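hi! just following up on the protien thing from before. the input was this:
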Amino acid sequence: EIYTLSLYDALPILFQWAISNSPCSSSFSQVTITNTGGPTTSVAGANQNVCATTATLNGNTPLVGTGLWTLVSGSGTITSPTSPTSGVTNLGTGANVFQWTISNLPCTASSSLVTITHNSLPTITTNPTSSPSNCGQATGSLTGINVNGSGTLVYSWTNGSNTVVGTNADLSNQPAGTYNLTVTDGNGCFSVFGPYSIINPG
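and the predicted 3d structure came back as:
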């Protein structure tokens, strides 16, 4: 015969099956059933937008079962696959999808997904043209630079003292010295270009 049982405890439960046919001796056999409990529900964490090729995963810690990270799509190297907070390296540009699976056999595993989007950094396509300052005056310039990046680009020129001296693509009215340009794109990703020199020919 087949019986359906509801097991609420995780402790092993011993059952005995007896078959009787008087006046003969009864026949007995036993079986132990253990409710292992389902795995902790997987939570892979919030989606991330990053500018670097590295990131840190943020899955939940299993109370029941063990967790494992796997790559679903895109690219990336999972450094510690069984750690909820594993690092990821070598992220591909764009969306990279990872799955956090918590298993506790023989129960059905619990899985969830997280997307880490790697945004490209601004890149320079044309270096600036340097015009010298005259007679030690603040008349030098760095012009004509072209930068590719996502969304609206924000420019910040700094001098050798790391003081901001310009916020446009072109830098003008500067004394001789060295200058760096930081460009931040619409994703908050930035690149630093330089140093570029303005000379004073005398």
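The chain has a mean pLDDT of 91.
The chain is about 0% helix and 50% strand.
cheers
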